[in-house]
Amino acid sequence: MPKNSKVVKRDLDDEVIESVKDLLSNEDSSDDAFKKSELMVDDQEEKDVDVEEGSDVEDERPAWNSKLQYILAQVGFSVGLGNVWRFPYLCQKNGGGAYLVPYLTLLLIIGIPLFFLELAVGQRIRRGSIGVWNYISPKLGGIGFASCVVCFFVALYYNVIIGWSLFYFSQSFQHPLPWDQCPLVKNTSHTFVEPECEKSSATTYYWYREALNISSSLSESGGLNWKMTICLLAAWVMVCLAMIKGIQSSGKIMYFSSLFPYVVLLCFLIRGLLLNGSVDGIRHMFTPKLEIMLEPKVWREAATQVFFALGLGFGGVIAFSSYNKRDNNCHFDAVLVSFINFFTSVLATLVVFAVLGFKANIINEKCVIQNSEKILKLLKTGNLSQDMIPHHINFSSITAEDYNLVYDIIQKVKEEEFDSLGLKSCQIEDELNKAVQGTGLAFIAFTEAMTHFPASPFWSVMFFLMLVNLGLGSMFGTIEGIITPIVDTFKVRKEILTVVCCLVAFLIGLIFVQRSGNYFVTMFDDYSATLPLLIVVILENIAVTRIYGIDKFMEDLKDMLGFSPSQYYYYMWKYVSPLVLLLLLVASIVQMALSPPGYSAWIEDMAIEEFRSYPTWGMIICISLMVLAILPVPVVFMVRRCNLIDDSSGSLAAVSYKRGRIIKEPINLEGDNTSLIHGKSPSEVPSPNFGKNIYRKQTGSPTLDTAPNGRYGIGYLMADMPDMPESDL
């Protein structure tokens, strides 16, 4: 056919369209969805639409309004509460500045490569986690369902923490702050300080008694805490309203929820550096303890933190990237978001220990004053001689250095009877070595430090509003990891699914706002995600590198990005990352087996925390959480393996196979044994029944660009073929 002949080309196009119509007219009525999507072939060049799953109508997939909005969404999802209250604790516990070495090493080995992998498959296939892994291998389709289950478990208790933050935020608009001092109790004869508060501290008492009104054990429910129930409802309403329109609604909120925490952290850092003792805290934090860095436990905890900090395995990363254009540079995104996450953790660590250094300095000053008064009493009673006190020491305005000098002298002179004197060593390092994390850091230690700030209510409002925004950013990604795969797979309305999901989660979440709810939060945090997510990510790696094929995946990346990714990723994905993940899985199982399963219960009478083992029914819940989270993987595998679901049922996978083989098998392209679209090799799929076959044997057809999931992927090979010889029809 002459290449420049418009008349001949139009005739060919008409013949092609008629051929397609003849072909489709012989399909079964059950393939109606397939017909409608295929008849839109000639319009693909005009619109980049999404018809990959055989939907009833040509459904345009939502897209991010801008690259900045997408980056902020990924940053908001990956940067969460763990960056503020987990990373500083691990840094302090595992060698200070030396901890950054194993963390950065593991970020390069497993963090960035696996984050890049999830971004790439989501962007390439443009589906949620269920659709992505179903395409690559239907037998591993359970990976996506497992991710959804884990996301749901995490969302249940994560939003409770947002509810706690909302409660503290609402209580911060008063001066003095309600947790500034212990409450007084009045009776008929006199007024006294609340005993539980006097034995602990004002902030500790407020957290356990006023906020949580906590019971003494997991078995003691105590009924609902109505203050926290209202806060939990408010948190779920916020999440529902933000997510109800998908990225169209949540994307706009990202500008505030993702950026505001950085404004607050910078304000706290500047304010903290101006406080007395802040430099001591930062110096203590980053003083490297190189001997600790060689311990295996440090590397295990660093690997775990890298893994969870980036949100690997949750499905949120895949869901967000699925709304990108296919030519987006996701490699740049992976590196950028990973390092933003890392530097956010370092920034949060600076802030936390600047403030804790200030708090330690205040506590140390009180210690010096109290013990100096003891020394003066001992001097008056004659238990200590005035001769042992240096002449320049003035007890009325004694410094910490002078006190420690006197303390050392008395300890040497009165070596035998020193313990009976009741003097304490007042060292800032001793206070800073008291490692706290999680709720203990956010709702006790940090809130106590803020009570000593000038204009403390303002800083309290800023801090808890920051926690709310950090939590919401992570919740958006977590809920997206549930909603997007289900909408893509089962074609339900996103608005209805979002409302139902949030309502069900709120009702189940009522167990976390009982008086014993904090213990259930600990249980879910320890057992619902760690092992299941590690297994999910290991299977993700295997699915791409072994089942789909690492060489083919690298070719797809080249086609999608426009350049070949570094061979570094090839070796990381194929050898190093799976090995490190397996070691981490084994280490986590061993650590879980060696650690007695239990929780820290608050004992009201003694005002202390006491470790208690889970009851039998509690252990059953812990095991059930892990089993339910990973159960979809073997179930889906067995269902596919035993062909318990009929491929002609119109399911997602069936439609994909049918469309793939109808278009691709007659053409018989070489070297395309499997693809991200088909999920099966052509040899595994039975030959289609065309009825009246209108195609002749192709003897001279030109080579076609059939890269899986290309811009016009899914086997739409007849959309643009102006140079096809006339004899081929």
UniProtKB/TrEMBL annotation:
Belongs to the sodium:neurotransmitter symporter (SNF) (TC 2.A.22) family. SLC6A15 subfamily. GO terms for biological process: L-leucine transport; neurotransmitter transport; proline transport. It is a multi-pass membrane protein. Residues 27-57 are annotated as: Disordered. InterPro entries: B(0)AT2 (IPR042934), Na/ntran_symport (IPR000175), Neutral_aa_SLC6 (IPR002438), SNS_sf (IPR037272). It catalyses: L-cysteine(in) + Na(+)(in) = L-cysteine(out) + Na(+)(out); L-leucine(in) + Na(+)(in) = L-leucine(out) + Na(+)(out); L-valine(in) + Na(+)(in) = L-valine(out) + Na(+)(out); L-methionine(in) + Na(+)(in) = L-methionine(out) + Na(+)(out). This is Transporter. Na(+) binds at residues 76, 79, 83, 341, 470, 474. Keywords: Glycoprotein, Ion transport, Membrane, Metal-binding, Neurotransmitter transport, Phosphoprotein, Sodium, Sodium transport, Symport, Transmembrane, Transmembrane helix, Transport. GO terms for cellular component: plasma membrane. The keyword Ligase does not apply. Residues 40-57 have a biased composition (Acidic residues). It comes from the Eukaryota.
